[in-house]
Design brief:
The structure is a single chain. The longest helix is centred in the C-terminal third of the chain and has 7 residues. The chain has one domain: Jelly Rolls (Sandwich), CATH 2.60.120. 24% of the residues are buried. The strands form 3 sheets. Strands 1-9-6-11-4 form a 5-stranded antiparallel beta sheet, with no helix packed on it. Strands 8-7-10-5-12 form a 5-stranded antiparallel beta sheet. A two-stranded antiparallel ribbon has the order 2-3. It has 131 residues and is mainly beta. 5% of the residues lie in helices and 50% in strands. The two termini are 16 Å apart.
Length: 131
């Protein structure tokens, strides 16, 4: 599980601030989604065969869970959980089952490496019960 906590602005002047969310020189983002979730909502409970994504929490809080997927496509290994707050970002790798439970009304950006057209998303997504 890769979490970046409390991302702070790296540039501040009289106009405002700039915070670098992602600048690794290799990740290609093919879709950006703005997702609002109500308190108690569960999202994900799936893994992606090819896609990976970053979820940057703009407001609210969530419990994020991740569990490895074995070569047979079944959940295997130890499930990890972490609570994320506004300003935190988590990376979900391909073949890593993940789920989110929102602890309060929340808004996050999903920065994905594959198209999120409905057809492409369904072909790449395998639903499982992480939570």
């Amino acid at each position: 599980m890769i979490i970046s906590r409390g991302i702070k602005p790296e540039f501040i002047d009289e106009r405002g601030t700039i915070a670098k969310l992602l600048d690794d020189g290799r990740t290609v983002i093919r879709s950006v989604l703005l997702i609002a979730s109500k308190k108690g909502a569960v999202r994900a409970n799936h893994y992606h065969k090819k896609d990976s994504h970053y979820a940057y929490l703009l407001s609210g809080s969530m419990e994020y869970a991740e569990q490895p997927v074995g070569s047979n496509g079944e959940l295997s290994g130890r499930k990890e959980t972490a609570v994320l707050m506004a300003g935190d970002m988590v990376y979900s790798a391909p073949m890593a089952a993940h789920a989110m439970v929102f602890l309060e009304d929340s808004v996050f950006l999903a920065l994905a490496t594959e198209s999120r057209s409905q057809q492409a998303y369904e072909e790449d997504t395998v639903r499982v019960n992480v939570i």
